[in-house]
Amino acid sequence: MNHNNNFQQSSDGRHDDDAALTEFLSSLMGYTPTIPDELVEHYLAKSGFQCPDVRLNCCLCFCRIRLVAVATQKFVAEVATDALQQCKARQAAVVKDKRDKQQKDKRLILTMEDLSKALREYGVNVKHQEYFADNPSTGMDPASKEE
Amino acid sequence: MSDGGGESGSKHQQPHTKRKFSGDDFSQAIAKVAVAQICERVGFQTFQQSALGKLADIVVRYINSVGKAANFYANLSGRAEGNVFDVFQGLEDLGLDQGFSGASDINHCLASSGIVRELIQYANEATDVPFAYAIPHFPVVKDRKPKSSFLQIGEEPPIEDIPAWLPAFPDPQTYFESPSQNERASDSYTEKIELGKQQRKMEMSMVNLQRQFSESGPSSFVHGDSSKEKKTVESNPFLSAPLHFEEKEVSSVVLPAKLSKEVALQNPVAKKHVVDNHISVMETFAPALEAMKNRFCESREEQKNIQLDQRPPVQFKIGVGKKSLVKPLKSSPQNMDGGKIDPWFCKENENDERKGDLKIF
Asked: Average pLDDT, whole number, for chain B?
C-alpha cells in the first residue's frame, strides 16, 4: 500500500508526514466507516462543532465528519479488542477445572465485566450496581436453552 | 451478531417499546447497531444487552467530546468553524489518557503526531464494513408553511399603514371579541339553548301525553262499559260519599289546565286532538249529564255545570284514562273492605269522585 510506504518513510522528514496526511484525508472519501456519517454529523452538531453548510456536503466538511467517524470506530474497536482479551483470559482461567463445560462456555460474550475492565484503561469508569444482573441466559444458544 | 437467543432479546426489547420515545432514541439505536457490527468484526459472538448499551453510550459521548474539543481549539485560534487540525488536536486531548508517541513534545507538528499515524494505520488496515442499514438524514426538520400575505390572498390591508406584503390577518371573528366577553356570550347562548331545549322537551312530553290519551282515552271509554263502571262506582262506598270536593277540584285543576291550554294553543295538531276529545267526552257523558241535571237540585246543578264547562277536557281525561285502565280493578276491593277515607289517597281519588259524581247521578 502507498500509505504504508509513506508511513515507513515518515521519519525522513516533515514533508512526508504532510503528504501522508493529505493522502489519508483524500482516501477518507472512499472509505466507508461502520459508524454512519449521519450519526456522527448529528452528534457533532449537538456538541457545537460547526460545519459551514452541511447541505452543500462540501469536501472539507465531509472530511471532518469522516475523520471523526474513523477515529470513533478505531476507539470502539480498540475497546472491543481489549474486552475480548479480557474475556479470553477469564475463560482460560475459569475453565481449567471444568473441562467438560468448555464447549458450552467457549462462546465469546461481550459482558459488562470485561467491558468495564477494558474501559478503565481508556479513562472511563464504568460502575454498575452490585447486584445488577443481566438475563442469566444471555449468550446461550436458543437450542441449548431449550434443552 | 446474535443477541444471545431470541427470548432474552424480546424480553429486553419490551420495556423499550412501552416507553415513550424521545428524540434521541433513533440515533442511540443506530449507535447500538454500529457498535454491534464493530464488536462482531473484532471477534465477539454474542453480547449482553447492557454492555452493548453502555458501549453505544460511550461512543456517543466520544463523538460529543471530540466535537467539543475541536470546537474549543477552533475558537482558541479565533475561528468559528473547526477544521481537520482542530479535530486532530481534540483527538490528541482525548488520547492523552492512553498516551501516544510524541505526546511529550509540546511543539511537535500535528501531521507527525502519533494519533494521526495511528489513525492512518488503522484506516489502512481496517476493512470496509459499511453500516447495515441505509439511514435517512436526521433529525428531520419540518419546514413551516408561512402564512400567505395580503398580496397573495388578493385582499387590501384594512389600514393603509400596513404594507401588502405582510401576512394577512386571520378572520375577524377570531380576534374581534375579548375572551371574557366571548365567555359570557357563549354562556348566555348555551343557557338560551338549554332553556329552549327544556321547553321543547316539556312541550313534547305534553303533546305525547295528549296524543296517548286521545288514542287510549276514547277506546278505554268504549271498553269500559258505562254500566259496568257505574256498578263499580256505585258499589264503592268511598266514592259515593260526597265530600268537600269543590275546594280540591279548584286546587288540582287550575295548573294543568293552563299548561294544557298553552300547549294546545302552541300546537294546532294537539289542539285538534283536544277538541276532538272534548267532543267525544261530552258525547259519551251526555246521558249522565242529562240525568244529573234532572235529578239534582238546581243550585248544585248549576255549579256542576259551570264547573264541567270550565274544566278542561284534557285534565279530566287524564284522571279518567288512568283510572279506567288501572283503578277499577285495584281500588274497588280496597275501598270495599276499607270503607274509610285515607288522606293519602285524596289526590288520586279526586278524579274518581268526580267520575262518581258524574255517573251516580
From this structure: 68
